[in-house]
Design a protein that fits this description.
Layout (H helix, E strand, L loop, with lengths): L1 H23 L3 H11 L7 H5 L16 E10 L3 H14 L3 E9 L3 E11 L3 H11 L2 E11 L1 H27 L4 H33 E11 L10 H29 L1 H12 L1 H10 L1
């Protein structure tokens, strides 16, 4: 009796385990049914069944953003030569260069205007360095232009024109028989090639401008700023007196040169003064 009872209990436990395993297994027909209910083909492969269906799928790859960055700034510096030397070394270290340097010596200051071409990834670092070297940043303007749309459009048009040119080349090689057909195909190819070169040049220009940012810098050094940044009123007065004496000397030099330019009139005036009595007598007699 006990053996029958144990066999019955063992049979019940085995049945319950089988039922639990069946409930956790998704039948193949159910997968096909769900797919046909909301999918296109109504069947999934084993690989598709193992991948969860979520809304977090990665977006399609997009074109890289192309930005043109530029800056204009005006700086007051204590030593023009020192800042220029630092800037040239920094540009060379960042694989850029300094272009269009124009240095002018004015009565009260020395001024330099220049352009720096620097890789875009070092654009902000270069501006920070210029601000650190300047005693005063009087003006700074940063501009960013997104040319991604123009670049993508140019690339698309360029690919289209190249495909059309290649078709005309194929026609010229394989189908053109008469002289008229050959000349017509060559003319089309010439026009397309010119348009392709123009668009390729524009693409290269945009790529170069995006790779190298431009910083236009105007910096000036006041007279005497390298010796002492903040001079007192007495030193300023001495400088003003010196500039006044220098301006007076320049005026005397100008007057002397003017007299030299007018030497014929001076000779005529001296002769008239020397002969004035004889001239007056003749005038009275007349």
């Amino acid at each position: 009796m006990n053996s029958y009872l144990l066999s019955f209990v063992f049979f019940l436990m085995l049945s319950s385990c089988q039922h639990a395993a069946d409930s956790t297994t998704v039948p193949e027909a159910a997968v096909e049914y769900e797919a046909s209910d909301g999918g296109e083909s109504g069947q999934y492969t084993k690989a598709q069944q193992q991948v969860p269906l979520t809304d977090d799928a990665p977006p399609p790859p997009s074109a890289p953003t192309l930005l043109l960055r530029a800056a204009n700034c005006r700086l007051r510096v204590d030593s023009l030569e020192l800042v220029l030397a630092k800037l040239e070394r920094l540009a060379g270290f960042y694989e850029g260069y300094v272009a269009e340097v124009d240095i002018q010596n004015e009565p009260y200051k020395r001024r330099a205007q220049l352009s720096v071409r620097i890789p875009t990834k070092y654009f902000a670092l270069t501006l920070d360095s210029l601000q650190a070297w300047a005693s005063t940043v009087e003006y700074q303007h940063i501009s960013t232009t997104d040319v991604t749309e123009e670049y993508v459009d140019l690339k698309s048009r360029l690919d289209t024109k190249k495909a059309v040119r290649d078709r005309y080349l194929s026609i010229l090689r394989n189908q053109a028989k008469t002289v008229e057909e050959i000349l017509l195909a060559e003319e089309k190819i010439r026009i397309l090639q010119e348009e392709i070169e123009v668009k390729e040049g524009r693409l290269r220009y945009l790529e170069n401008r995006a790779a190298l940012s431009t910083i236009h810098v105007e910096m000036y050094q006041p007279a005497g700023a390298q010796m002492e940044v903040h001079s007192g009123w007495l030193k300023d007065l001495g400088q003003d007196i010196w500039y006044a004496l220098r301006a007076g000397g320049q005026m005397l030099r100008f007057l002397f040169l003017a007299l030299l330019y007018l030497w014929p009139l001076l000779i005529i005036a001296v002769l008239i003064w020397w002969k004035r009595k004889r001239i007056f007598r003749r005038w009275h007699k007349g």
